[in-house]
Each structure stands twice: as structure tokens, then as C-alpha cells.
Amino acid sequence: MKNEPTAKQRRGAVITAVILGGLALLFYVVFVGLRW
Amino acid sequence: MSDHHHPTGIKRWLFTTNHKDIGTLYLWFSFTMLLIGGSMAMVIRAELFAPGMQVVEPNFFNMMTTMHGLIMVFGAIMPAFVGFANWLVPMMVGAPDMALPRMNNWSFWILPFAGLMLLMPMFMGGDFSQGQGPAFGWTFYQPLSGQYNKLGFFIFAVHLLGFSSIMGSINIIATILNMRAPGMTLMKMPLFVWTWLITAFLLIAVMPVLAGAVTMMLTDKYFGTSFFDAAGGGDPVLFQHVFWFFGHPEVYIMILPAFGIVSQIIPTFARKPLFGYASMVYATAAIAFLSFIVWAHHMFTVGMPVAGELYFMYATVMIAVPTAVKVFNWTATMWKGSMTFETPMLWAIAFVFLFTIGGFTGLMLGVAPVDFQYHDTYFVVAHFHYVLVTGALFALIGGVYYWIPKWTGHMYDEKLGKLHFWLSAISVNVLFFPQHFIGLEGMPRRIPDYNPMFADWNMISSIGGFVFGASQLIFLYTVIKCIRGGEKATDRVWEGAEGLEWTIPSPAPYHTFETAPEVK
Q1: Is the pLDDT of residue B5 over 70?
Q2: Which residue among B117, B233, B269, B278 is the one 20 to 30 A from B338 at the CA level?
Q3: Phi/psi at B96 (nearest 5 deg)?
Q4: Contacts of B81 (CB under 8 A, 6+ apart)
Q5: How far apart, in whole angstroms, are the C-alpha atoms of residue B261 and residue B255?
Q6: Which of B16-20, B123-127, B429-433 has the lowest mean pLDDT?
Q7: DSSP state for residue B190 in the 8-state scheme
Q8: Which residues contact B459 (CB under 8 A, 6 or more apart)?
Q9: pLDDT score for B127
Q10: What are the residues whose beta carbons fall under 8 Å from the beta carbon of B478, sequence distance 6 or more?
Q11: Chain A interface test: which of B106, B178, B242, B292 (most A C-beta within 10 Å)
Q12: What b/e sequence results for B173-209 when a residue is b if at least 16 CB atoms lie within 10 Å of its CB, and e otherwise?
């Protein structure tokens, strides 16, 4: 099982994903809210 | 490799979390969509072969132009680049796989359903020729698109496509930022990885804007709001602003990874390192930044204050600076190189020439007073097809020839590859170059019939189109032949190739980098 990401890499990937997903959601809300 | 068991048959593809499998799925999906969208282009060129209506009904023609655009942008070009990213980014940065493999599977498997949702209304309404697919242009301007009675299908499809793109981008960024092998610093990454990192940020910034636009369309249509409806106090021009705030960066989403592919191919066959690596990275970032502040050059004729027109004009022509840096660097890489002209290099050189033509006509269109003349003519059609066909598509095809020995373990048939190249390169110019002339003469785009004064060039353009379309069948045949067998590829494949992907066996093992490689 050497072909596995390290725990640090996994944690980093999840944190990156959450931040970017949050940003995407924020942009969506801002653009719909632009004219609401 | 024997200890890496994976399900076989359909289960392998449905449940796969392997970046190479998912890359392959993306590439075949996009090629299928290329053929579907291409067939629609053939219908368009058949109708435009001569003035008058001969082949299809006007509404069907509008449906073809609309679906051709949507399928090529969202179904062919974008997923093809995601396929390349899946296959190559982990191998290039020395990672065992993408950072979020299960989400990777989901990103892909949303796509076929979104594609189906987009295509389905074409077959509704009994008679195919009376199909009810979208027929309002790929830009779906309001209020026209608001009158479409199957709008829900379209909106749901766009939402799904956006969702898939955002998840794919998150995965690519998470992989590049977290999974690089020891020693692989950001400024040592291959340029293809850099261009995709920047592209992924663009996608995350603008796909939600597109989602916002279609959500507002949805509530306007079905829930009584008036975002874009002037009768209720809304503004149809707002739609154009929101759409192009997404749409202009979208153009760069489709071309930046192409820059990345060409920046890998040219140094290999010039047998020299890429000239000006750092300036290439900064130029890519500069283009990405500028892409956010130029959107209204798509709508000069809508009626803007002169100050607005001037601002968007100057901001637009500024993009020529970082783009010229790139073209200069590619040329300087070839300068005094020991060049050979294998098939991938031919596509890359054609890219540099022909994409630059598309870039120059883009400059012409970016000049506001001149754009009043060119707007909505065939000149625009010629411009963006030079960018997207001889630009994005040529880079993709060149990339397939470049990496397919690594993917399949076999060399492709060089004679067939060259035949494919020369037929495509000649016919694509016969197809699109005359469209500059008929555009300048005043032929509007998106029309099934036209003034007989445009007849000659249209006929020539159609002939070029049929040959270009048929040439792509050679590509299909060459790829299948390469998958089924052929001369065994070496690990490095190309004498001048540099990078981690060339250090592993060909075909690339199912799991790469059992132990992380050290990058010096």
C-alpha cells in the first residue's frame, strides 16, 4: 500500500476543496443577489 | 502491476477512481461529442452550400447552430482538456492519483447525463425536423431564450455541466497544491500543469456566474421574477453583462490549456528547453486576470457610454501583450533548435501560425468603432473558429499524438498522422478563411439563407468543411489502430522529451509512482 497519499496530503486536499467549494458558492450567491 | 486489481467490464468504468481511467472516459466522451457537434456543422455547411433553403427548415437550422456551439464548447473542448488534465497532471507532478478520486468519478459521470439533458428536446415533438431543441444561439440571450418552452431541460443541463466543471477544477487545484512530489516546486512544474492550475481558478470563478445567470432565467420563466424582463422592471442587457462576465473567461478556459500542450510539444521537437519559462507562467496569469475585465467587448453595439467603450477597447487590446510574449517564446524556442517534424510538432506549429491569425482578428474586433461594422457577421465566426478549431482543437489533436504512445504503449501510424494533419490543415483554411471575406462584405451569422453575392465563398467554405469533417475520421481510425497495436513505444518515446511522465514505462502502469519520485 505504498501508492497512497500521506495523511498530510489528504488533509490538505480536503481543506483546499472546502475553501474552493465555498468560494464557488459565494460567487453564485453574489451573482444571483446582484439584482434580487 | 499484477497486485493492482480493478473490476473489469462496465464496472471498471462506472466505479473507477483511477485518474487514467477517468481521463480516458473524458477523452472518449469529448470525442463522441466532437463527432455529434461536427455532424451538426456539416448540416449547417450543407444548408449554406448555396443560397436559398434546400436542406433543412429555418428553425432546425437555428437549432443546429445553437446545439453545435453548446456541444463543442461544453461537450467537446472543455471535457477534452479535463481528460488531458486527468491523465497528465498526476504523472507530471509525481502524484499517485488525483487528490479527490471519488469526486473525480462523480465529476465525469454527471457529464453524459447533462449532455443527454441538453440533446433530448431535439427529439421531442414527434417529427425530428420539428424538434424542440434550443434554437436561440449558444449565448442564449434574453428575452429570446425566455420564450423557449423546454427551458427547464436546458437550465438543468447547464447547472449539471457547471457542477461537473467546478468539481473537476477543485480536484485539479487540490492535486497541484497538495500532491506534488518532493522537490517539485511550483516554478519547476511543466507548463501544462501551470496553465491548468490557472484555468481551474478561472473555472471556479466563472462557472458560478453562469449558474447564477441560468438560475435567474429559471425564476423569471417559472417563478414570476423579472431579472431580465423589462416589463417587470428587469433588464435584458443585464443578462448580456452577466453572460459575458462568464463567457469571456470561458474563452481563455478553452485556450490556456492549449497553450500548455503546445509549450510541452515545441521544446521536445526543437530539442531545447522552453524559452522564457517564467515569462510564460506570468503571461498565462496576466491573460487570466485580463480576461475578467474585458467582457463588454462582446456587446459594444448594445449601447454603452463612450467612456465604457474606450475602457473595454483598451483593456481588450492589452491582452495582445501577454499573448505576444507566448508566441515570441514559442518561436524563440524553435530558433536554432534541432527541429524534427513528427506529427505532434506539425499540429503545434500550425497552432502557433493559425491561432495567431485568430488572435489578430480578435484585435480587430476589439477596436470598438470597427466592431460596429463586424459585429454579428461571418467575420466573427471566422475569428472564433480560428481560435477554437485551429487553436484549441489543433492543440488537443497534437497532444493526443504526443502522449498516445505513453497512454497505449504503441506508436501511432506516422503516415496516417501526417495525412490527417495535412488534410486538416489545408481544409480548415479553405473552410474558415473565406468567412473573413463574406463577413467583411456584410453576411450576418446565424442565418440559413443569404444574398447570392455571398454564394461563391460559401460554396468554397462548405467544401472545406466537408473535407475537414471527413479528415477527422482518419484521426478516429489512427487512434483505434494505435490502441489495438503497433510498434512498441519506449519509455521516453521522444528523444527530446523532458518530464516525469516520460520516466515511467509505456503504457503508463495503472498505478504510477509506487514511491514518490525525487525532483532535483
Answers
A1: no
A2: B278
A3: -70, -30
A4: B196, B199, B254, B257, B258, B392, B396
A5: 10
A6: B123-127
A7: -
A8: B49, B50
A9: 73
A10: B412, B413, B416, B417, B420
A11: B178
A12: bbbbbbbbbeebeeeebbbbbbbbbbbbbbbbbbbbb
Active-site residue, selected from the candidate residues B248, B383, B406, B410 = B248
pTM (predicted TM-score): 0.96
C-alpha distances in Å from residue B33, one per residue of B38, B113, B254, B292, B348: 8, 13, 16, 28, 23
Say what the pLDDT of residue B409 is.
Answer: 96
Contact criterion met (CB < 8 Å) for A16 and B170: yes
Q: Which of residues 1-36 of A touch B (CB under 8 A)?
A: 2-5, 9-10, 12-14, 16-17, 20-21, 23-28, 30-32, 34-35
Task: Enter the ipTM.
Answer: 0.89
pLDDT of residue A35: 62
Question: In Å, how far from its chain's centre is CA B62?
Answer: 22
Residue B95: is its pLDDT beyond 90?
A: yes
Neighbours of B335 (CB within 10 A): 11
Where are the alpha helices (H) located in B141-235, listed in sequence order? 151-178, 191-222
Q: pLDDT tens digits for B504-520?
A: 999 999 988 878 888 88
Quick check: B132 and B121 in contact, CB under 8 A?
yes
**CA separation for the pair B349, B103 (Å, rounded):** 36
Q: C-alpha grid cell for residue B403? A: 502522449
**Cβ contact A9–B99 (<8 Å):** yes
* Residues in chain A closer than 8 A to B238 (CB atoms): 35
CA distance linking residue B390 with residue B431, whole number of Å: 11
Which string of DSSP letters, residue by residue, matches B466-493?
Answer: HHHHHHHHHHHHHHHHHHH--SBPPSS-
Say whether pLDDT at B129 is over 80.
no
Encode pLDDT of B456-468 as tens digits.
999 999 999 999 9
Average pLDDT rounded to a whole number, residues A12-19? 94
Query: Please, which residues 156-195 of chain B have a Cβ atom closer than 8 Å to chain A?
Result: 166, 169-171, 173-175, 177-179
**Euclidean distance between CA atoms A18 and A28, whole angstroms:** 15
Q: What is the DSSP string of B19-37?
A: HHHHHHHHHHHHHHHHHHH
- What number of other Cβ atoms are within 10 A of residue B155's Cβ? 22
pLDDT at A36: 56
Closest CA relative to residue B378, chosen from B254, B313, B470, B461: B461
CA geometry: angle at B475 spanning B39 and B48, to 5°? 30
